[in-house]
Structure formats: C-alpha cells, structure tokens
UniProtKB/TrEMBL annotation:
InterPro entries: Dimeric_a/b-barrel, Rham/fucose_mutarotase
Protein name stated in the entry: L-rhamnose mutarotase
Gene Ontology annotations of biological process type: rhamnose catabolic process
Keyword Nucleotide-binding: no
EC top class, as a word: isomerase
Lineage per the UniProt record: Bacteria, Bacillati, Actinomycetota, Actinomycetes, Pseudonocardiales
Length: 122
C-alpha cells in the first residue's frame, strides 16, 4: 500500500464555492475514485486556499491511469477547473506530490521489542 499526499492551490476568492461543490460530490465521481483503487481519501483546505489531499492505494500509477482515462473524472475536473489557480488544466494531473518524511506506524514497527533507553526516561 502506498500513501499519496499532494497539494494544489484553490483561488482564495472561491473557497466557499470549492467547499460547496465538495459537500456533495457527484455519486458517479465518488464511484470512479473508488474504482481507481483510492482509499482513505481526504482533502484539507487552508484559509489561503492551499489544498492538501491524501489517499492510499495499492498502485498510484494504475489509479492515476484509471482516472486519466475516465470520462466522468474528465467532466468533474472541467467543472472544477475555474476554482484553481494555474493554467486551467486538470488539477488532478497538475497536483504537486509531497514526499513522505515521517510515518508513526512505520517507525514504531521498526523499533526493537524492548527499548534500551526505557530506564533513562524515568
């Protein structure tokens, strides 16, 4: 499983509209995201329009390819294009991927069974 995080910039003047449209995403788009293999998908929006997205998938390339070929996703992205800062292309394909630098569960899994520093913390 791969964790994917990305960022986009929503036009700060259009935040209310962005929130409104995402309050009721088209059912066919929701199904298309699911069919692409994305799970645990969330979007977070800062007051200045910085949008951070996160999802998990078994194959980022297969997920991206599925949505790139989807007529439903193309219609959704066209309907959303006016809300983003940038060249007006498909936001899902223009997003900046972020490198993961820390994941608690991964580091906990790598810990030895007993902590050699356990007595030093008391």
């Amino acid at each position: 499983m791969t964790r994917v995080c990305f960022q986009l910039q929503v036009d700060p003047e259009r935040l209310d509209e962005y929130r409104r449209r995402h309050a009721a995403v088209w059912p066919e788009m929701l199904r298309e995201i699911e069919a692409s293999g994305r799970r645990n998908y969330s979007l977070f929006l800062r007051p200045d329009g910085l949008l951070i997205g996160y999802y998990e998938t078994d194959s980022p390339a297969a997920s991206d390819n599925h949505l790139a070929a989807s007529a439903v996703a193309a219609r959704w992205e066209r309907s959303m294009a006016d809300l983003f800062v940038g060249d007006g292309g498909r936001a899902d394909q223009a997003a900046t991927a972020l490198d993961e630098v820390f994941h608690l569960a991964d580091q906990l899994a790598d810990l030895p069974e007993t902590d050699p520093c356990e007595g030093e913390r008391a």
